[in-house]
Automatic annotation (TrEMBL):
GO molecular function annotations of the record: lyase activity
Protein's UniProt name: Putative enzyme related to lactoylglutathione lyase
Keywords noted in UniProt: Lyase
SUPFAM superfamilies: Glyoxalase/Bleomycin resistance protein/Dihydroxybiphenyl dioxygenase (SSF54593)
InterPro entries listed in its UniProt record: Glyas_Bleomycin-R_OHBP_Dase (IPR029068), Glyas_Fos-R_dOase_dom (IPR004360), Glyoxalase/dOase/EhpR (IPR026275), VOC_core (IPR037523)
Pfam families: Glyoxalase
Highest classification ranks of the organism: Bacteria, Bacillati, Actinomycetota, Actinomycetes, Kitasatosporales
Domain VOC: 1-121
Amino acid sequence: MTTSVVSIVYVNDAPAAARFYGDLLGMSPSFETPGYITFDLGPGADLGLWSGQFEDLSPDVPRTSEVCLAIDGGRPDELNATFEQWKSKGVTILREPHDAGFGLTFLAADPDGNRIRVAPKG
């Protein structure tokens, strides 16, 4: 049996969210329907964007989970370069790069207010 972990992020508009995440990840979706779009992140891992599950998701509502994009090697220069790139694209930054005990990390948000952490791969 093949097992895959799919992290699902609820969004207002799946195609718009897919454009946002596709730009950040530098990839195209692996599966698309009007309300559900996935990205193949590698063996056993997918990111799913699902709309229509909630009405009018607001960025103002506090979130209790994050999608974490782990950078191989986790060098501070790589993380800082990703931070500067995202900032130049107008991505909402919730917390600038800082040492969180496991390495340098920063926190951003997608247009629906879902939290995205960038951190070193453990």
